[in-house]
Specification:
Order of helices and strands of chain B: HHHHHHHHHHH
Largest sheet of chain A: 6 strands, mixed
Largest sheet of chain B: none
Radius of gyration of chain B: 18 Å
Oligomer: heterodimer
Distance between the termini of chain A: 87 Å
Structural class of chain B: mainly alpha
Strand content of chain B: under 5%
Helix content of chain A: 40-55%
Helix content of chain B: over 70%
Structural class of chain A: alpha/beta
Distance between the termini of chain B: 25 Å
Number of domains of chain B: 1
Number of strands of chain A: 14
Shape of chain A: flat
Number of domains of chain A: 2
Largest interface: A-B, 28 and 24 residues
CATH architecture of the largest domain in chain A: 3-Layer(aba) Sandwich
Chain lengths: 358, 228
Amino acid sequence: MIKVENVTKKYGGYVAVKDVSFKIKDGEIVGFLGPNGAGKTTTMNMITGFIEPSSGSIEVEGYDISTKPRKAKKSIGYMPETTPMYQDLTPREFISYVAELKGVPRKKRKEEVQKILKEVNVEDVQNKLIRNLSRGYKQRVSLAGALVGNPKVLILDEPTVGLDPKQVIQFRNLIKELGKEHTVILSSHILSEISQICEKVIIINKGKIVAIDTPSNLEGKVKEENIFLVTIEDPENKIKEVVKQMKRAKGVQLMKELADGTKQYGITSINDADIRKEIFETFAREGITIFELKQSETTLEEAFINLIDSDKIENLNKEEKKEESKEKKNEVKQEIKKVDNDNNSKKSKKKKNKGGKK
Amino acid sequence: MWAIIKKEVKSYFYSPVGYIFIGAFLLLSSVFFNMFLKNQGIVEYTGLFMYGAELLTFSIAFLTMGMFATERKNGTEMLLFTSSKSMTSIVLGKFLAALVVIVVTEILSLLYYAIFCYFAGGLIEVVPTLVMLGGFLLLSLVYISFGGFMSSLTENQIISAIATVVLLVATWFLPNITEVLVMLSPIYAFQNFLNGVVSISDTIVLLSQFLLFTLLTITVLQRRRNLK
């Protein structure tokens, strides 16, 4: 269990993470999503105790990372984005050193190291120096470092960056497997990865949390209408009339013309109804050949872009409001000045008059 | 702490660093040995360490310059600081590992002592020799903690090395400025040990200097976590 409460990290005047709060239950796989520089790594570094938050509190497995760091850190396995490792050690030496650092008892150490070397599949290079390993192997050794000592919480910062497609798939399966026994926090900017692996997504932008939800809910939020994509051969060009006949169809629009002479249309339905059957039957009756028929899916990608954009729009609105209020203030100020000037000129006139009288 | 000492000692001897340090130290000691014998016709084992202390002032940076600087540069400090080891045990572990290299050097230097004993026909001046070796270890601890402190301030090994050597050499001349500053010069505190005298006040001076720089190193590393 991880509890992050009102955590803020400031660097001088720059706020990297702003008032972030969330909870992660035992055994959850949570994706941390956000554009570059959003504050993902900073937040993860704070959870692992590598850096200290400016304010707020972080609890890992019931222990506060600032006041009880040793107990909290014992339950965390961290795989940093940069996969820092001692280049002059072999994977076996490196992992047994990390095991020692984490306090794995001497008797169990050898067995544990062997088990983990096997688990991340680096047995064949275990006695090569780390500096000579390929990126994929280094990544796996770094993951092994996080796994050693069987910590309850795994924090993986962009674990699949730089891997080839096959390795990526292996890695994802491994993480899914790990998620059965561990609480996993995973950061990535590859959205398909998050939607495949994670049960919950935290979207962060400019240091603030924009959304916390399941991937499917997030996708659902963005989805406005049910659109059916249909690729057809329609020599007589009568699709618009045909669609008008259909009771549950709202409208149709041309999406694209394909090279083989077929066209793809998007048909929207009334009340989000599933009208695939109706489309199929009607089109067949009217002599329109269907090459492909599918329901369009909104992806996490769209959800992400939408959320980030809406965040931007909100910020823009705020800025506009600020500017407006500034303008208003300025106007008020100018009015006050005017009044003041008027008063002053009146006063000075009076003075002059007085002087004249004297 | 044991895990860190073990790993650090290993990396001193997996890389050429340990061998170069010990080799250079012993080679120059041999040169002194030979020089004294030829020029003055007299040479003492403890006398060698008078020059040894000066040699150490120049060479200690070789052991300490990368202590925290390289960890910071390569990002491996992340592994250390997110492990459940306390900052104190990390810092002391690294310092004691460097001391192990010094102990190895002292043991190898006993070869000179063996030569003296051979010609004297038995063990000579056992207690003063042990006192001197102990004092040399204390002096080394102060130098190591100072070099480690310099290494914690930067991620550039060269800067840390130059700062260590320059400032340590500067401490030789502190007593020339005013008598009071003798307290701040580790090499002066070592003088009595050279003569085989255990001086409580000198021991306290050296130990408190070691503690001071250890605490400063820990503070710097802790503080950087807040700034990072």
